[in-house]
Amino acid sequence: MTLLDAPRYDPRxxxxxxxxxxxxxxxxxxxxxxxxxxxxxPEQHRVNHFFSLVEKGKMDDAYAYWNNDPEWRQHDDRYTGxxxxxxxxxxxxxxxxGVIHGHKIEITKTVGNGVVMGVSINxxxxxxxxxxxxxxxEIGFSPVELYVGxx
Length: 151
Description:
With 151 residues, the chain is of the alpha+beta class. The chain has two domains: 9-38; 41-141, Nuclear Transport Factor 2, Chain: A, CATH 3.10.450. The protein is 39% helix and 17% strand. A four-stranded antiparallel sheet has the order 1-2-3-4. Helix 2 packs antiparallel against helix 3. The chain starts with 10 loop residues before the first helix and ends in a 10-residue tail after the last strand.
């Protein structure tokens, strides 16, 4: 076969190749879009679960979830920076928010190696900013505040 003896053009084969390329590009774009939209989903789920424990009054479980340590009572000396009594003051019925009966995540943003979330508690106007670490999955108060914008 020489250079001038090219195979006949097959429109069916060309259509299959074109459609395969377009489908591959579409699947890649859809995957990128879904990754972008749901990037912070595990951390949002973690904060939602934490607040559901607080709303139910399960402070022991909520503290364990806050520190990502279900066995925190066996080694509570690790948590001298934020003791359980301080946690109860911040999240219990005597806190600034009173009895927490509802929450809504207003905004999320990946900052550094964690996710910062603005959470409205009991329909408050100003959100409380929490941070979830990507590696340790610990929840904490965020030093960064995000701009939520006007209503």
